[in-house]
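cron nightly-structures :: item 1 of 1
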Amino acid sequence: MNTTANRTFTVPTREEVSSNNQQIFDSLHKMIGFVPNLYAYYAKSETALGDYLALQNRKSTLNGKQREIINLVTSEINGCRYCQSAHSVFGKFSGLTEEQILEIRKGSASFDAKLDALVQFTTAVVENRGKVSIDAKETFLNAGYSEGNLIDTVIIIGDKTISNYLHNITGLEIDWPLAEQI
């Protein structure tokens, strides 16, 4: 019998985390005005928050809008309401409209053929755990993406999957404007 079925996972306060993580909390607060619950939860580990932020903020061959598309598609497929909500906000900051964000989450980007290829490739990678068809790879590359872009797409999927899984496990309170359920 699972004795942790009703476990409640809690978000640590600044005072409950290490001094290193307190400094990261302070930086996050300055950058976005608060410390998101999921980021705060990472701080229960001495190194996870810093490591995760380094991965998330690494340089990429993909621009902000492309990264947000990958985040939205991955979060939708993985069923993470927290990340759907957060990346709907960040998607708007990257220049996507609410309608475009909803369309992307539903699996297409009819407003831009190259971005649609990114949506389709991301969907194929996440749904098939990387075992994508030759056609999926060729469609992505023929849309104008490079092999470097392919690598960065997979890294971003991995980054987002980490947070999707962590939130799906913990069910922490969503502290972003709640994304429309589709």
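cron nightly-structures :: done
The chain has two domains: 14-56, 64-170.
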